[in-house]
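I have been asked to look over a protein record a colleague put together. What it holds is a sequence and that sequence's fold in token form. Please read both lines and tell me whether the tokens look consistent with the sequence. I do not need a full report, just your reasoning and any doubts. This is what I was given:
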Amino acid sequence: MVGAARATRTRKMEVTVAGYTLRKLEEMPDVLGDYPGEMRMSAAADLGCEQIGFTWRRMPPQTGGKGSYGHRHKTQEEVYFIASGTLQFKLEDEVIDVAEGTVVRVSPEVARSVWNEGPQDAVVIIVSTRSEDPAADVETVDDFWPAEGAPVTTQDPGAGSQRTS
């Protein structure tokens, strides 16, 4: 069976059986449209998830929410995993540099936004509870992250230290 699974990697893979679904990431729709990067969400791909929401996002340098809005949720907790690169998170009034390999949990009521300062692409995986109506659960926070002038807190979760600049 392992050999058969390897042989299908170069072809379209979509397997749905009672109890599980397999789908290649690139076969899930990119919901960003003309915005730089990619965002592929389980809600747009009909994976059959009953409890979990999954989002994979590639962010080129100088993309994300800085100079724009943020958001919070009524009920949805989110967990972000930085798979590659470094991202800046604005969580309420704090801006934190978060490096590859780090997990960030954000409770529903915390206003948040993410930015890739660069110099390379970053990939973030977001896992959350599944929502029947995601638009009804989200609250947009206008003018959340000014383009310039926000202090950045650098935090190394392993060392337990942080520095504000």
